[in-house]
């Protein structure tokens, strides 16, 4: 998933969002959303995100309860692509620890964090948006990207040494979430009456796990700047640990923006673009964005699972027939052009739509 185009450089762009939040009186122009009206700061409705019991999905029997859970999963993923995963086998205290090491990293002095700065044209490391074009709108977000799987692509030099349990906690989290992910990806197939490994096989033997730790400093201009611009995730599947107190995530459903509620003890799960392709558009990779907050900072942790780079992903045969034509072309390494497309204002998945005349 390496960015392909050469990134542009400029003085203002080299500052972290944290630095910008303490500087100056005017909004930095590269961050101001061109069509500010679209931010719509009036209070948005809250999305009802169904709770899915992962323990039930693991069970090999097909009881009434399991069938009901699969129906609920299918319904949520085909209407807006989000669920809250509960009973996932990770204790609240463990998830709190994951968020706590994340918080402790972002609370380090800037000079400390900059020791882990992302190199140009790389993904792993600390920094903000890669800049491809001068009129790109930047996100009010400092982040740390780290590849977690496969082991061979970990860049430990970008992994924080402080707090000193960072590495241990993230390795444990990765192992645990990998198991949850297999359960959910299999359940997605079962809920569509497909063979359970149908999507998991497309991830290949060495799926990719990438985490993105997000820090959103308070922003003096919440009506003009977004913490993350609208996007669908490039992943196969995405898991999000949300800030415990500060909302910000919003989802587009039927052309209306909704707030995603805070989910204590639950993980938010959403379909990524690559699972939308594999399900031939039945499951939706939701377009989401993050609002800025004038008073409060926010921290979240996203973890993305994606097929290995050599795997050709494709809509499952069992989902295509005369009534349901193929919607997407096959693709290898979906992430390769994703960032550049997104930063150029495109919706990357649209490039794969089958064109009919
Ligand atoms: O911070 C959030 O609530 C969402 C983050 C997100 O969408 C991402 O990292 O892709
Ligand atoms: Fe996202």
UniProtKB/TrEMBL annotation:
The keyword Methyltransferase is annotated on this UniProt entry: no
Keywords on record: Iron, Metal-binding, Oxidoreductase
Domain of life: Eukaryota
Pfam families named among the record's database cross-references: 2OG-FeII_Oxy (PF03171), DIOX_N (PF14226)
Gene Ontology biological process terms in this record: coumarin biosynthetic process; response to molecule of fungal origin
SUPFAM superfamilies: Clavaminate synthase-like
MF terms (GO), sorted A to Z: 2-oxoglutarate-dependent dioxygenase activity; metal ion binding
InterPro entries, per the entry: DIOX_N, IPNS-like_FE2OG_OXY, IPNS-like_sf, Oxoglu/Fe-dep_dioxygenase_dom, Plant_2OG-oxidoreductases
Coiled coil: none
Positions of the Fe2OG dioxygenase domain: 207-307
Homology family: Belongs to the iron/ascorbate-dependent oxidoreductase family.
PANTHER family (alphabetical): OXOGLUTARATE/IRON-DEPENDENT DIOXYGENASE
Protein name: Fe2OG dioxygenase domain-containing protein
Species per Swiss-Prot/TrEMBL record: Cinchona calisaya
Phylogenetic placement of the source organism: Eukaryota, Viridiplantae, Streptophyta, Embryophyta, Tracheophyta
